[in-house]
Amino acid sequence: MKNKFSIGVFDSGYGGLTVFKSIAEQLPQYNYIYLGDNARSPYGDHSFETVYQYTLQCVEWLFAQGCQLVILACNTASAKALRSIQQLDLPKKYPNHRVLGVIRPTAEVVGDFSVNKKIGVMGTRGTVNSNSYPIEIGHFFPEVKVYQQACPMWVPLVENNEHLAGGADYFVNKYVAELLQQSEQIDCILLACTHYPLLVPKLKAFLPAHIKLLSQGDIVAKSLVDYLSRHTEIETSLGKEGKRSFYTSGDVNIFNKQASVFLGQELLASQVKLS
Ligand code: DGL
């Protein structure tokens, strides 16, 4: 019998776990391999070329572990590396493999969550400067006006487990205030970085109650359910033993501790050397 494949989930660090959690809840039967490039995180301020090289390296590592499908559970990587990987690397080297991102599935639905058709997008500098969200949302919801806010201090707060501490208040308040200054009409904020859902308790304290906060986990999971139902050639090649493996390029003990708290279950990650 031929070996069956796993689904790879990749992020620069812990943030992709917010997407992995939703995917594994909605599609528990598949085998998953999670890779966090914690040693080189954050990606948000790296150049286009660096994010592309790091992301490609991680994707190729996941392919080598038996993933036929990899989800870039990272907006920065989706904005800066996905297109090159899909258009250049896959056709040349991996014609039977697939890599999907998180920006398009989000852009397809986000307009439905705003009554005023004024949406705030909070992300890393890389994601905001790429303009991917205004462009993609414009394809699906031309009537929506997008206001962007880069939040470069938020990923470091999460990666260092300082996101719920008192010291985080200053930077949460600062970026929220800068976004809301752009328009009083914003009634929906998209957390366009997979690390940011960990800041939701803090964000709620600084946001007016009528503003909806949108995270990507459930949106990406639903889109994957739909993708697999349409691509039976991929779906039938996937193993269905419900296995989960976790890898980090960073400190494995710190990863285990933080990831277990977040996922609500003990896990034992392994270390991977990527450089
Ligand atoms: N979780 C990544 C994202 O969605 C964070 C990127 C970073 O490392 O700065 O953009």
Low-confidence spans: pLDDT under 50, at least 5 residues?
none
User: Which bin fits the share of residues in helices?
Assistant: 40-55%
Radius of gyration: 18 Å
Task: Give the tally of β-strands.
Answer: 10
Structural class estimated from helices and strands: alpha/beta
What count of helical segments does DSSP give? Answer: 13
Q: Into which percentage range does the β-strand content fall?
A: 15-25%
Mean pLDDT: 96
| Biggest β-sheet description | 6 strands, parallel
Question: What distance lies between the first and last C-alpha atoms, to the nearest angstrom?
Answer: 34 Å
Order of helices and strands: EHEHEHHEHEHHEHHEHEHHEHE
Spatial arrangement of strands, main beta sheet: 4-3-1-2-9-10
The bound ligands are:
D-glutamic acid
Taken from the alpha-carbon principal axes, the silhouette is: globular
Quick summary:
Helix content is 45%, strand content 17%.
Structure notes:
The protein is of the alpha/beta class and 275 residues long. Helix content is 45%, strand content 17%. It contains 13 helices and 10 strands. The chain has helices at residues 16-26, 48-64, 75-80, 82-93, 103-107, 125-130, 132-140, 154-159, 169-182, 200-206, 217-230, 232-235, 252-263; strands spanning 6-11, 32-36, 67-72, 98-100, 118-123, 145-150, 188-191, 212-214, 244-248, 270-271. The chain has a 6-stranded parallel sheet with strand order 4-3-1-2-9-10, with helices on both faces. The chain has a 4-stranded parallel sheet with strand order 6-5-7-8, with helices on both faces. α1 crosses α11. Residues 11-13, 15, 41-44, 74-76, 124, 127, 155, 193-195 line the site of D-glutamic acid. D-glutamic acid is lined by residues 11-13, 15, 41-44, 74-76, 124, 127, 155, 193-195.
